[in-house]
Specification:
- The chain is an alpha/beta fold and about 500 residues long.
- It has three domains: about 15-75, no CATH class; about 95-145 and about 180-305, Thiamin diphosphate (ThDP)-binding fold, Pyr/PP domains (Rossmann fold); about 330-500, Rossmann fold (3-Layer(aba) Sandwich).
- The protein has 18 helices and 13 strands.
- It has a six-stranded parallel beta sheet, with helices on both faces. A five-stranded mixed beta sheet has the order 9-11-10-12-13.
- Helix 10 links the parallel strand 7 and strand 8 (about 300-305).
- The protein is globular and about 90 Å long.
- The chain starts with about 30 loop residues before the first helix and ends in a 13-residue tail after the last helix.
């Protein structure tokens, strides 16, 4: 290690040496130039000094010889960036067929589905050795201990001690050939390792597939600058925000409850982000991410939020893959006659939206179409791109955003609910030219059950139901008294504080 002590503005003398004005110092006076010239023995005459000419030493001077040698050792005179490495073929979607099927009565979380997919990828003959799982202390929390025995935890010196869990089948196994990077409680270190693996295609000519999984609250909020740097470096890989959402990690309070990481993800132009609810959505997204980054070698990276909440997963609806990737698809079309509403949701709150659709039909005779929207950030970007095209082509037939296209033949007001700040779904407002109401989890979290948290943040099935009825009342399709009746029926306290304020 070399520790170098420097002086800000070294050599500038009274013009800026050791002063905080150095960055904004744009010019030097004649005396300062004279002092600078004399200090560094630059052969420029007094007559030439006012013109501040460039000076280049002779080709055979020690300075130029040294610079030439250094550039030769570094491989040339301009930084060189490899834009591609030998492509890796992404496994076809049917490789993950088990995740596309109905789980029946068996409950599972999307985090568990992710670990199963990761385990399968690590066994893949083509891709397996390129997979880099990265964790910061939470491997067992995410159910990854099975991978300790399978591929090992990387240690350049191997296992030098007996781990505390040596008596367990899935003990903490370190190995010189291990693939898991276990960084300890060090999110910045884990992210730095992820960046190193994610840029290996350029720096080393080898495609690697880093998966860094962490509590989503400890991602962009803590290492946001590194995530931005990763985008700037054109890193490729997957960031997995586990235990995501403001209301899904019961009992651990605001320190762990994330209602904004998906908003943060939108800040980074080449970050592709999703908030899936079901295992088949996760499988479609990761498989296509592998195709884009490793097969087609696109310079993007993925942020995917997963849940620790266990529930049954349905089979993948036929023809939904394209909509999943675009960010929106019709999960279930409402049947029957009566007032109609469009309900949108993602992540953990999609299941509340589905329950609200049932309640609207059973309790109020309202028909609800349910839209899964796992990619709200992508929908926003696509809609903005369509709006930009329309601005620049005023005489051409205008393009419709994908959101508008989906909703075109589905009448009625639209209600969106997510486990994130209202701002997340508010992004879609320009592309929904009709009555649009948004529910979200603005405010701090607290320790309580999921049901209580969703009631507190006003995103549960009862609030979604009341909001849908209010949208219909606003349009004159039902009397306002029906909304008041629903508020009383579901024991919603109309005088409770705004969650943002408590």
């Amino acid at each position: 290690m070399i520790l170098a002590k420097t002086v800000k503005g070294y050599g500038m003398g009274v013009a800026g040496e050791g002063k905080n004005i150095t960055h904004s110092q744009k010019k030097m006076g004649e005396q300062a130039l004279r002092d600078f010239r004399d200090r560094f023995h630059i052969p420029i005459s007094d007559e030439q000094l006012n013109d501040a000419p460039f000076y280049k030493p002779a080709a055979d001077s020690p300075e130029i010889k040294y610079l030439q040698e250094r550039r030769a050792a570094l491989g040339g005179y301009l930084p060189h960036r490899r834009r591609s490495a030998a492509p890796l073929a992404a496994p076809p979607l049917d490789t993950f067929d088990a995740l596309l099927q109905d789980t029946g009565e068996r409950d599972m979380s999307t985090t568990m589905a992710f670990v199963r997919m990761l385990t399968q990828l690590a066994r893949d003959k083509t891709m397996g050795r390129h997979v880099v799982p990265i964790v910061a202390d939470e491997a067992r929390t995410f159910g990854m201990e099975g991978m300790f025995r399978q591929i090992g935890i990387y240690s350049p010196r191997g296992q030098l001690y007996e781990p505390q869990d040596a008596d367990q089948l899935m003990f903490y196994k370190e190995d010189k050939k291990g693939q898991i990077l276990q960084e300890g409680i060090n999110e910045a270190g884990a992210m730095s390792s992820w960046i190193a693996a994610g840029t290996a295609y350029s720096n080393h000519g080898v495609n690697m597939v880093p998966f860094y999984i962490y509590y989503s609250m400890f991602g962009f909020q803590r290492i946001g600058d590194l995530a931005w740097a990763a985008g700037d470096l054109q890193a490729r890989g997957f960031l997995i925000g586990g235990t995501s959402g403001r209301t899904t990690l019961a009992g651990e309070g605001l320190q762990h409850q994330d209602g904004h990481s998906q908003v943060f993800a939108q800040f980074i132009p080449n970050c592709v982000s999703y908030d899936p609810t079901f295992s088949y959505e996760l499988a479609v997204i990761i498989q296509d991410g592998l195709r884009r980054m490793l097969q087609e070698q696109e310079n993007v990276f993925y942020y995917i939020t997963t849940l620790n909440e266990n529930y049954p997963h349905p089979a993948m609806p036929e023809g939904s893959a394209e909509g999943i990737l675009k960010g929106m698809y019709l999960f279930r079309q409402g049947e029957g006659d009566g007032p109609r509403v469009q309900l949108m949701g993602c992540g953990s709150i999609l299941r509340e939206v589905i329950a609200a659709a049932d309640r609207l039909h059973e309790d109020w005779g309202v028909v609800a179409d349910v839209w899964a929207t796992p990619g709200i950030n992508g929908l926003t970007r696509e809609g903005q791109d369509a709006a930009r095209w329309n601005l620049l082509h005023p005489t051409e037939p205008p393009r419709r955003s994908y959101v508008e296209t989906c909703l075109a033949d589905h009448p009625g007001p639209v209600v969106a609910a997510t486990d994130y700040m209202k701002l997340y779904a508010e992004q879609l407002r320009p592309f929904i030219p009709r009555h649009y109401l948004v529910l979200g989890t603005d405010g701090y979290g607290r320790s309580d059950t999921r049901a209580k948290l969703r009631q507190h943040f006003e995103v549960d099935q009862y609030f979604v139901t009341a909001t849908a009825l209010k949208a219909l009342a606003d349009e004159g399709q039902i009397p306002a008294a029906k909304v008041a009746e629903a508020i009383a029926k579901y024991a919603i306290n109309p005088e409770k504080p705004n969650p943002l304020t408590v």
